[in-house]
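Researcher: Here's a chain I'd like modeled. Treat it as a single chain, no partners, no ligands.
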Amino acid sequence: MKLTNQQITTIEQTLVLNGVVYDDIKLELLDHIATEIESIIDESQFSFEENLKKVFAKWKNELTPSSSFWIRNNKSIPKIVIQKSIKMIQHVFLMSFCLGLGTAVAITLIFKSNANQEVLVVLNTLLRVMGILGIVLLIYAKFRLWQSKQESTYSYLFNQNGFLQIFNLVLIATGLFRFKGNTAFFDFHFMSTFFPITLLFISGFYLNIAFKHIKFENKIKVI
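Model: Modeled as a single isolated chain. Structure tokens:
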């Protein structure tokens, strides 16, 4: 049995009442739950409302209010949103660590082969420019999300964690975090190369999360 528009609206309203206000998760769950109800409604003698309660009971664990140490938030939201957000955070930090380490090694090799002040000045200037560019892009992304009429896990995570990266970028843009011209891989100075680069990558990946929201919003407008 195909569900009516009113029944689908009822499912959506029930999701919102359970805290699912983020459109990407809401659309995904709406499709799953509607499909489940359609598959059992012909086989059972229960009404739509009874089947609705039965299916939502299966999703009770995912819809339970939750929070996480990894997300700056002062309220509980559905566990399914937290889980998706944590997966994105893990991706951000894992990729930033690997790319930061690889880039830091490459820069150290550059210093090893050409250890002069001019190279150091050029790389530090490039680092500061990247920091300034990152600040501008973060502010732009924040403005675009503020204008957005949609909510998603992407906008949620960027607003909670991503925009804070502007403070790290200020330290880079002002030169407080800078390269020391290290030529070894196992000393304190190597961290002065690895650390700011990793922060840049973290900011870049959070920017990508913000732009994923914008892409999602444009997709919704087309639909």
